[in-house]
Structure formats: C-alpha cells, structure tokens
Amino acid sequence: MTAGPSDATLENGALAGVRVVELASEMGALAGKLMADMGADVILVEPPGGDPSRNYPPFLDDEPGPDRSLFWWHYQTSKRGIVLDLEEPGDRARFTRLVASADVLLECEAPDRLSSLGLDYPDLSADHPELILVSITGFGRNAPRRDEPFTDLTLLANGGPAWSCGYDDHSLPPIRGGGNQGYQTACHYAFLSALTALLHREVSGRGQHIDVNAFAATNVTTEMASYHWLVAQGTVQRQTGRHAQEQPTMEAQMQCADGRWLTTGFPPRRPEELRWMHDWMVELGVVEEFPEAVFLEQGAQLEAPLDISKIGVDDQTTVIFGAAREGMVFLASKVPAYELFVRAQDVGISVGIIYSPDEVLEDRHFVERGFPVQVEHPELGRSFTYPGAPYKFEKSPWHIARRAPALGEHDAEVWAELEALE
Asked: Which residue among 180, 182, 205, 316 has the highest number of C-beta atoms inside a 10 angstrom radius?
C-alpha cells in the first residue's frame, strides 16, 4: 500500500496508507467519500473546467459558483483534487503514472471509454498487477443493456425500490427515494467490494477488476420485494411509512397533540412496556378515557412478551396487542410528538419522530453520538456543520480530514509527491 499525504488526521483511519485514484463522477462520489473519510488518500481527478456536480444547487448563501455547491461539499470531503484532460496524450501518461502509485482506481465512465484511451484494466494491470479497478456502470460493463442511458431516477424505477415507496393511496404514483439513493446503493456495493479486494490482495498479492452493476444493485436492495416475487410470485404494495407487503398492514404513522407526526414501528408487547403505557395514562389523568386500558393491565401481568404468532388465534393475545396499538394512538393525541418520542425510546419502544433535515442535526440523540461535525473552510474564514459518520465503530475511526477540494487545488502537491516516490 502506498503512503498518502502528510496529514495527521488521516493516519489513524482504517484505510490509512491506501491510495485511491477517483475519476470524478456524481455516480461514484459517495464510494470515494466513504474511503476518504476512513483515512484513504483519495485523489480526485477532474477534467478541465471541473466536474459538472460542482455546479449543482443548493449553493452557499444561494450564490452559484463551482466552490459554493453544498452538494459538492458533501460528497467530496477528505479528498485531494487535481485536473487532467484524459483526451490529451501527455495527461494520459501522467494519469498512468499516478495510477501506478495507487491501490484502487474508482471510475464510472461509459463502458468503452477507458479502453478507447488505453487506460482500462488490461492496460494498467500489465505493469501494476496489484491494482484494484472498481467500475460502477448503469447495467454492467458487458451486459446486454450496457449502452442504455440512465439516471438515478430510472435506476430506482427500473430496479424496483421506487415500487415500494409511496402512500397507501395508490391513485398517487410511487415516490423516488431522495438523495441519489440509486447511485448511493451502487456506491455501497463498490465500497464493500473494494474492501474485500484489498483483503484478498493481502493474501494473493493480486488485484482485480470489480464491475458494479448499479441496476442490479438496486434490484437486490428492494428489502423483500424482489425475493418475494422470485420465491412466491407475489407483488408487494407500497404503504405509508411502513414496509411494502402483499396484504395491507396496520398504519404506523400517527399525528400527535402538537400536530407533528411519529412513525411508531412495532407496538409494545413486553409486560414492562404495557405497564409503562398504562401508568403514563394514569399520570396524565386520561386512563378513564381509554376503555381498553384494562387489557394493558392484563398484559402487564404476563410473564413473557406477547407471542405475535397467536394474534388472530388466541383471544387474549389479540385484544392485548390491539389495545397496545390503540394505546399508542391515544397517547399521541394527548402529548407533543417529541415527548412521546423520547419517553418511548427510553423504555425501548421503537418510535421515530418525523424530522426536517435541520432538526436531525439538532436532535440530542444525534448530537451525543457526534453526528453533526464542524468542517473548517479556511478560504471562507469559517466552519460549517456537516452530517457526520454513517456508522460508529470502535475499531474503525471515521473523520472528515478536510473540506472538498477547489478545482486543481492539489496539482502541485500530488505531482511533487509522485516525483519523490519515483
């Protein structure tokens, strides 16, 4: 593995010492970010004029500019940036030299572009057999549909996730998940595959070419929908705020006394949860308004959680479970959403408040876990709050080492390091 930049913030990451060359692309940006924030030295190669996503809104203070895109800021953290024109022979030679110093090359080019430039896996691995090339394509490098155009929207619709997203009212169309979820799904497969290939190389000494089919990635990430069709030939139906199923399930979202909404998940079923619900109604002075409270008391006396397989079969189980479900709706009508959210979480009941993005970053739970992080922008003389780690592992520290690179910001630095290595 290759030495990266002399930046102390990268030294303790799980991928410290790994160099990744990334050909800039909206489609693969998250895969590079995940590696960079784990400590890899990710060198982002942009074309002259910069990658188009530099100009995606929203912008800082609503003022457009190639270094003011918040979209760009988010996906390019911890990376270094250089500019190369791969259509020019001299820059192709420089790119080859750069890749020779790398462990991983990440690209999302059209299926034949790298081969037409003499920069595909057979060309690069001839002199660098340890290289791991990770390609993310719409439908696979050599698949029948390889040349079909696509977007994140069409991948999600074609692959199946959009079918499962939306409302109980099926006169409304399905809803695409926001935030480029099709591309991000492919990036997660690319990231995990690259990590596996790095481990394999430690044993075998050999690199490999990984071809991530974004359409296939979305198709196998439909929760149960794809497999349900393959195994049972059943078609799941989308439902508001809950898992898509063949048969409708009970509603999971409820409006609280302050007008805000919660997603309740699975109703209480443990004796201590049923006791908590009953006692809170007593505390609020509203237990007499809920006739089914008597069933909550019965449930609180049970020696074990309700056996949900007996719902509809055993009368006691059925009425207690039904009382628990209706009890959550009743409590929601009496208290503010955040109070129900916090108190239910405290006793282990799965309840999620429906937040705006700003509210997520301000929530006490996320703040305590260190999810909001401050990232310095020296060129602006200030720092900004960014979404933090998508996970928290004791042995795999995560850190945003630097803000997204300005266009060509690290040209001189990267080439000087390469000269020193050679």
From this structure: 182
